[in-house]
């Protein structure tokens, strides 16, 4: 796809899938690092996890015995395999798409979130939501948020087959309908819904304020790298969207010196721009469940 086609697809549908961005050796390496940290997390030996059945941050590591559905902070300085994860986050093909979608320079980019969504210990689903707009928002509030300029790009990079992401295409351009607003939060047949099907090595970029949910099958292997990058902008809402996940508490300690030089230079610049946003101790949370 050309840059214009990428932007047009994202603007029209709210998501765009790019097939096979990873080479076979990269896929093998990322799977190995991912399997190791998932095993570590399930044993309670990594404190930053998404625990069942809680849907949104903050999560409590003491609940790990209830099972997990994700691993947080893949770029954390104490993360096993962090250099491998850093190479996947700052991957040239990923960054190229981000720059094209945001129509910015690499020097404008800010380090944001990098987590992994994994097979849950029991079947699990997220309710319908928009990431940065709470469920009680009025139609007017929704439209105000949805009409704001896009200042970050969010993606899922699948290491195995993945059809967990369910979206309502085009819903990022409008307020919820009366049916959507009144529907059961876990409605299985929302009008117009689409399961985004990904093969290993595919990446999907999506507007995180599209109406979407996740449906996770505990019998199907899942390791999907879930990241975002943005461009510099300072306001309380922007800070909350990123820092509510806890990245501000360790970002200044992250070390990117062991990845390829050009990647390392980009990473350090993005890191410094994130640090300028603050620690995130008092930004609050978008969702309460």
Automatic annotation (TrEMBL):
InterPro entries: Phytyl_CoA_dOase-like
Chain segments annotated as transmembrane: none
Pfam families the UniProt entry points to: PhyH (PF05721)
Stated name of the protein: Phytanoyl-CoA dioxygenase
Organism for this UniProt entry: Cercospora zeae-maydis SCOH1-5
Lineage, uppermost ranks: Eukaryota, Fungi, Dikarya, Ascomycota, Pezizomycotina
């Amino acid at each position: 796809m050309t840059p214009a086609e990428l932007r047009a697809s994202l603007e029209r549908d709210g998501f765009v899938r790019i097939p096979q961005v990873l080479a076979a050796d990269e896929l093998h390496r990322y799977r190995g690092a991912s399997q190791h940290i998932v095993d570590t997390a399930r044993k309670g030996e990594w404190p930053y996890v998404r625990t069942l059945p809680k849907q949104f941050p903050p999560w409590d590591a003491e609940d790990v015995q209830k099972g997990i559905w994700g691993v947080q902070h893949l770029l954390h300085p104490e993360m096993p395999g962090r250099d491998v994860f850093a190479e996947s986050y700052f991957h040239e093909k990923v960054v190229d798409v981000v720059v094209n979608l945001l129509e910015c320079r690499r020097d404008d980019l800010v380090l944001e979130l990098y987590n992994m969504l994994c097979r849950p210990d029991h079947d699990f689903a997220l309710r319908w939501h928009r990431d940065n707009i709470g469920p009680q928002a009025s139609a007017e509030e929704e439209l105000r948020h949805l009409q704001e300029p896009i200042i970050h790009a969010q993606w899922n990079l699948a290491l195995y087959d993945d059809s967990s992401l369910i979206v309502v295409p085009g819903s990022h351009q409008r307020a919820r309908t009366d049916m959507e607003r009144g529907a059961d939060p876990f409605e299985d047949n929302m009008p117009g819904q689409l399961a985004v099907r990904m093969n290993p090595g595919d990446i999907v970029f999506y507007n995180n304020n599209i109406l979407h949910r996740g449906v996770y099958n505990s019998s199907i292997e899942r390791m999907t790298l879930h990241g975002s990058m943005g461009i510099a902008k300072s306001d309380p809402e922007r800070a909350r969207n990123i820092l509510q996940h806890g990245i501000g508490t360790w970002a200044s300690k992250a070390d990117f010196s062991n990845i390829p030089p050009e990647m390392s230079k980009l990473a350090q610049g993005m890191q410094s721009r994130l640090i300028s946003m603050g620690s995130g101790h008092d930004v609050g949370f978008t969702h309460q469940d």
